[in-house]
Amino acid sequence: MKNLGILKRGNVCLIIIDVQERFRPVIFEMDRVIENTVKLAKAFNIFGIPIIVTEQNPEKLGKTVDEIRWSLLEYRPIEKLHFSCFGKEEFVKALKKHDVTQLVLCGIESHVCVLKTAIDAIRAGYEVHVAYDAISSRNIADWEIAKNRFVQSGAYVTTAESIIFQLMEFAGTEEFRKIMDIVK
């Protein structure tokens, strides 16, 4: 049977890649990236799903933006210089610790760190879901072309809200009411 890319709690981890202060003025639609990343982080907190945050060279590029840091229950970023998160052993160990098979990626830049991480994740056997409305690049063309590369490489391209509701599964619960406050 064909794998349909169904996200399952207990199998998934959210990876927030390099959404840092110095990028704020230069990334295409950075406010959209931040808003949708915050939605994902808050929802994953409610679901009890692990979140890993990375920062590319934070001494030069700053910390993760405040809005995202404030949405996390725990803020322990993995600092890196590699474009792929898999270039950092601490990241690989964190994934193994969480024992997941599916990764939801968001962050910047789409065509560099997010793409290289997605490709390395797929090569390592992970199922990758990219929240397309929670990624971007400096240049709109790079953001748009990255979408094709994700699909060509075997990742699922979707949206933050689609990911949230796929993990929710049904309405009428207290958890659902909390999620509705996030997505409104």
Keywords:
6 strands, alpha/beta, 8 helices, 184 residues, six-stranded parallel β-sheet, Rossmann fold
Question: What's the layout of helices and strands?
Answer:
Elements: E1 12-17, H1 30-47, E2 51-56, H2 58-61, H3 66-71, E3 78-80, H4 89-98, E4 102-108, H5 110-123, E5 127-136, H6 140-153, E6 156-158, H7 160-168, H8 174-183
Parallel strand pairs: 1-2, 1-4, 2-3, 4-5, 5-6
Structure characterization notes:
The protein has 184 residues and is an alpha/beta fold. It is built from eight helices and six strands. The protein has one domain: Rossmann fold, CATH 3.40.50. α5 links the parallel β4 and β5. Helices cover 46% and strands 19% of the residues.
Total beta strand runs: 6
Question: What order do the helices and strands follow?
Answer: EHEHHEHEHEHEHH
Strand order within the widest beta sheet? 3-2-1-4-5-6
CATH superfamily: Isochorismatase-like
Shape: globular
Query: Mean pLDDT across all residues, rounded?
Result: 95
What percentage of amino acids are in beta strands?
15-25%
Helix coverage percent of residues?
40-55%
Our measurement of the CA-to-CA distance between the termini, rounded to an integer number of angstroms, reads 36 Å
The total tally of domains equals 1
Can you tell me the CATH architecture? 3-Layer(aba) Sandwich
Give the C-alpha Rg.
15 Å
Main sheet overview: 6 strands, parallel
CATH topology: Rossmann fold
Can you give me a brief rundown of this structure?
The protein is of the alpha/beta class. It is built from 8 helices and 6 strands, in the order βαβααβαβαβαβαα.
